[in-house]
TrEMBL record:
Molecular function (Gene Ontology), one example: oxidoreductase activity
Segments forming domain Pyridoxamine 5'-phosphate oxidase Alr4036 family FMN-binding: 11-97
PANTHER family with a match to the protein in the record: PYRIDOXINE-5-PHOSPHATE OXIDASE (PTHR10851), PYRIDOXINE_PYRIDOXAMINE 5'-PHOSPHATE OXIDASE 2 (PTHR10851:SF3)
Organism: Rhizobium leguminosarum
Keyword vocabulary terms for this entry: Flavoprotein, FMN, Oxidoreductase
Cofactor(s) required, per the database record: FMN
InterPro entries in UniProt: Pyridox_Oxase (IPR000659), Pyridox_Oxase_Alr4036_FMN-bd (IPR024624), Split_barrel_FMN-bd (IPR012349)
Name listed for the protein in its UniProt record: Pyridoxamine 5'-phosphate oxidase
Pfam families: Pyridox_oxase_2 (PF12766)
Any single GO BP term: vitamin B6 metabolic process
Length: 189
C-alpha cells in the first residue's frame, strides 16, 4: 500500500466504526492528563467521523473527570486497536468541548435513542450509586440532557502501525487545522 492508501484506509476504518457497533475501532481509548499531571485513559464510544476535516465525535457526561481534565488541557491522544487487521491507530490532537447548552450537543442529543439518553440520568460518573429518582420520563430526559456533552476531537497526527508476521509496518501522518494532510512518511516500527 502507498502512504495515500494507508491514510485513506485508516480513516475509512474509523468512519465505518462510527456506524458499526461490532467494529473494533468503535471503542477507543481517550487519554488526557489530570490536574496532577498524571495520564488518564478511558474507553469511549466513537459516534461520528468527518474524514475531510479529520474530526472524531465522542459523547460524554459533563460531570466526568475527563471533561474537567480536557477543559484544563485540551491536548489528548486517542488510541484504537483492531485485532483482525492487527492494526493500531494512535491519533494526537486537540479536543473542543460542547456543553449541554450548545447547538452541537442539542443536535447530537436529538439523534440519541432513549436507551442511550438514560445513561446520562444518574448521578455523576464515579459517585456511589444511590436510589434511582422517582420521576417521569420527560423530566428524566431533561435531567439527562443537562449533563450531556459532545467532545469534538481534531486530529493533528495519525500514527498507523500494522503488526504482521514479518515486516511490521508503520506510517505517520500530519494534518493542518482544516484537515488537509501536511506530511506523511514511513517510519521504523
Amino acid at each position: 500500500m502507498t502512504l495515500a492508501e494507508v491514510d485513506a484506509s485508516a480513516w475509512a476504518e474509523l468512519e465505518g466504526a462510527a456506524a458499526d457497533p461490532q467494529s473494533a475501532f468503535r471503542y477507543l481509548n481517550l487519554c488526557s492528563v489530570d490536574a496532577y499531571g498524571r495520564p488518564q485513559a478511558r474507553m469511549v464510544v466513537l459516534r461520528r467521523v468527518d474524514v475531510a476535516r479529520r474530526i472524531l465525535e465522542i459523547h460524554t457526561d459533563v460531570r466526568s473527570p475527563k471533561w474537567q481534565e480536557i477543559s484544563a488541557k485540551p491536548l489528548v491522544t486517542i488510541l484504537g486497536f483492531g485485532p483482525q487487521p492487527r492494526l493500531q491507530l494512535r491519533l494526537q490532537g486537540s479536543a473542543e468541548l460542547n456543553g449541554p447548552a450548545s447547538e452541537c450537543a442539542a443536535e447530537a442529543w436529538s439523534l440519541l435513542p432513549g436507551s442511550t439518553r438514560s445513561t446520562y440520568m444518574g448521578g455523576p460518573p464515579g459517585d456511589e450509586i444511590g436510589a434511582p429518582p422517582a420521576s417521569e420520563a420527560a423530566v428524566a430526559d431533561a435531567e439527562g440532557r443537562a449533563f450531556f456533552g459532545v467532545l469534538i476531537f481534531r486530529a493533528e497526527t495519525l500514527d498507523w502501525f500494522q503488526l504482521r508476521h514479518a515486516d511490521n509496518r508503520r506510517a505517520v501522518f500530519a494534518y493542518d487545522h482544516l484537515g488537509a494532510q501536511t506530511s506523511s512518511r514511513w517510519v521504523n516500527p
